[in-house]
Structure formats: structure tokens, C-alpha cells
Amino acid sequence: MNPIVKTKLPNIKNIIIVASGKGGVGKSTVAVGMAMSLAMEGYATGLLDADIYGPSIPVLFNLQGQQPGVEEHNGKNFMMPFIKFGIKLMSIGFYIDTKQAIVWRGPRASSGVSQLLSETMWGELDYLIIDTPPGTGDVHITLLQNFETSGVVVVTTPQHLALSDVKKAIDMYHDKQIGIPVLGIVENMAWFTPTQHPDEQYFLFGKGGGEELAKEFNIPLLAQIPMNEKMCESCDAGRMNELFADEVVKNAFDKLTKSIIKQD
Fold it and tell me: CA torsion sign, 138 to 144 to 145 to 148?
């Protein structure tokens, strides 16, 4: 079997994939929180929304209906990312009508992600965070086979019902031929804490799922991200700068960021 040759993108020191085995676990919010936390720590950070079928970046950053510019460099056209809160942003959602379903076969989806990754003028980056679709499909395989990436952060919720799909994702990233290091597990929606009562915890979606996964696969539980009553409103309104207004949430993402930096 011929060895797989992966492309290393110039000027990007670390590419971190954010993945999940299933939808509805808040993967995009975790990806955004990681990117914002890294940027706040002074790292040059980019965020690529590779979720072809459900792009979230335009909404989360209040950029709906906007399209990035194009500039020519060395005879080739490059897409210019938006910059918000110090993060360079690119998404397939900038080029499609997000109100309509995207009916793309695997090869087209893979090609689209490859273009966004390699034909965006990222400049010098310490970290590029890639928000991927749920599951283990063509987009993930394209990233693993074609590009050098530093590792993956796998997102789950505490409920045990979510674990079987997440386990499949971990198995894929552990594949000996195309796999990359699994940096660890993030348990999102770990509990509900009202902003006015930061010492209270309500386990709305069960308890212990992230810890169970970490033990089974012998990988770290990087962080448990709580939720509060303001997070959904901030996401829907595209005010992601308010995500860290709650000290409990900020501390959870700070812990996640430090874990990622430590593994660099």
C-alpha cells in the first residue's frame, strides 16, 4: 500500500479539528469558544466552519448574507477571511443560501472543504480550529487523508445515549492509516448553572458520560462546559463576545485552552 502524503499548510502552526459522533452536542459552540479563548490569550487564531450541511459561523458571528472578498497573490485568487473578535473566520455558509438544504454528494463536499482550507488567505496562524460536521463522513476523511493536522478534540454531552456515536468518531481518528492524535474529550452541557447562582448545578442531561469515555479510551477529559440561560440568546444574536461574560463558562474554556496549549 502506498503511504498517504498529507499537505502541510504553510504559516499555520497547529490545526485542531473539533468533532462529534452526532449532532446536537453543541460542537460549534465549543469550537467558537476554543477559538475565542485562544485569541484572548494572544494567539493568532483562525476558525474554519467545515460543516457543509449546517454551517453555523455566519449566525454565531452575525455575518449572515455577507461574502468575503477575494485578492490575488502570486497569480492566484484567495478568499479573504472575515476578522471578528480577533479571529479569522471562513465558512461555506458565506457562499450559499443557508435557508436551503445543501444537496451535495461526498466528492463535492470534500472538494468544497479543501478549497476553503487551502484557498483562504489565513496568513500566519498559531492555531486554526476546524468545526466539522457530525458523524464520520467524507469531510472528515478528506481532512485526515489530505492535510496535516495536529489533533482532534471530541465533543459529547453527559448523557449515555450520545456515547455510542461518539465512540465511532474516536475509533476513526485512531485509525492507523489516516488517524491523528485524539487530544481529549470535551463534555458540553455538563450541567446548568444559573448566572445569578454560580454555585448551583443542575444535571439536565445526565452525568458522567465524558468521564466514562475518557476512561474507556484512556484519553484526557479536557473540560466540562456548563450552560446557562444566556448562552442560547448570545449564540442566536451573534454576540459571541458575551459567551465569556459568565465566569463559570469562561473558566471552563480557559481550562480547555490550557490543555490544548500544553499538548502543543
Answer: positive
> Beta 82-84 vs 221-227: how paired, if at all?
unpaired
Q: Which helix (H) or strand (E) holds 165?
A: helix 163-173
Which phi and psi (to 5°) does residue 41 adopt?
A: -85, 0
Fold of 12-262: Rossmann fold (3.40.50)
More confident residue, 2 or 118: 118
Grid coordinates of 201: 448545578
What's the pTM value of the predicted model, to 2 decimals? 0.90
Distance CA(239)–CA(64), nearest Å, equals 13
Stretch (H or E) spanning 254: helix 247-262
Maximum C-alpha span of the chain: 59
Distance from C-alpha of 70 to C-alpha of 121, rounded to nearest angstrom: 9
Cell of 101: 438544504
Q: What angle do CA 253, 258, 262 make, to 5 degrees?
A: 150
87 beta partners: 45, 84
In the chain, helix, strand, coil percent, each to 5?
A: 35, 25, 40
CA geometry: angle 23, 28, 33, nearest 5 deg: 145
Q: pLDDT tens, 163-191?
A: 777 888 888 888 877 778 999 999 999 98
Contact at 8 Å (CB) between 102 and 67? Answer: no
Closest CA to 153 of 247, 25, 55, 12: 25
Alpha-helix runs per DSSP H in 4-51: 27-40
139-153 confidence digits (pLDDT tens) = 888 888 888 899 999
The ranges assigned to domains in the chain are 12-262
